[in-house]
């Protein structure tokens, strides 16, 4: 009945699916989340959203429904593959970039330990990242995203499209790492972000083990246009209202723009391509197929 509890144990995709079911059954039953991945413990599992992909769109169907409780048990991460342990690190880099320069410094100091999945370093990162996400939701004044801005989705306009282009072969965290790198280079080229800070962010992502390139970024449509650029309009549609993209002025200081200079976006994509080609030991995510 409507006073029942539904407990979900799993990663972000499963938590989202079950969260949607609990939000709609009897117009909402109590939902308890027990996240089992780095990404869900420090980001998606502690939020108020749920959604599933549909009609070729990321999170097209969903609701805003805060869980009754979230239980994070670090021991559940022990059996994850390295790729999935790493996946959530990027959301910590993201929230540090837009909200907390001191947290960014801490991630830099712990980068080698995080790359080696040292438990205490991972616990610190997950706890601080989850706390920053929850504080933003509680204090931003727009927990259910009625406006057109979504600063916690820094780096996500390209990431969501990249996931779709790759048919979700690229994990969410891997796509966000590329999206953050792309937007940092763009912000630098637009004279918003100093070169040294752009370099700090890109180097940190690489130290954590992320590739900053996928050949899917160069996929073209029938007219020869880069498919990833469609992510801008799809991102606007998903938020509603005006296009609103979060960029950086400094580490720890995000701000919003309402248009993107496409030639500068193209230049940023090609710079990432050249960066990957120039690193002989670089991990490059191949194009789908």
UniProtKB/TrEMBL annotation:
<dbReference type="GO" id="GO:0003856">
    <property type="term" value="F:3-dehydroquinate synthase activity"/>
</dbReference>
<keyword id="KW-0456">Lyase</keyword>
<dbReference type="InterPro" id="IPR050071">
    <property type="entry name" value="Dehydroquinate_synthase"/>
</dbReference>
<keyword id="KW-0520">NAD</keyword>
<feature type="domain" description="3-dehydroquinate synthase N-terminal">
    <location>
        <begin position="1"/>
        <end position="85"/>
    </location>
</feature>
<dbReference type="Pfam" id="PF01761">
    <property type="entry name" value="DHQ_synthase"/>
</dbReference>
<keyword id="KW-0028">Amino-acid biosynthesis</keyword>
<keyword id="KW-0057">Aromatic amino acid biosynthesis</keyword>
<dbReference type="Pfam" id="PF24621">
    <property type="entry name" value="DHQS_C"/>
</dbReference>
<dbReference type="InterPro" id="IPR056179">
    <property type="entry name" value="DHQS_C"/>
</dbReference>
<dbReference type="GO" id="GO:0009073">
    <property type="term" value="P:aromatic amino acid family biosynthetic process"/>
</dbReference>
<dbReference type="InterPro" id="IPR030960">
    <property type="entry name" value="DHQS/DOIS_N"/>
</dbReference>
<feature type="domain" description="3-dehydroquinate synthase C-terminal">
    <location>
        <begin position="88"/>
        <end position="215"/>
    </location>
</feature>
<dbReference type="GO" id="GO:0008652">
    <property type="term" value="P:amino acid biosynthetic process"/>
</dbReference>
<protein>
    <submittedName>
        <fullName>Uncharacterized protein</fullName>
    </submittedName>
</protein>
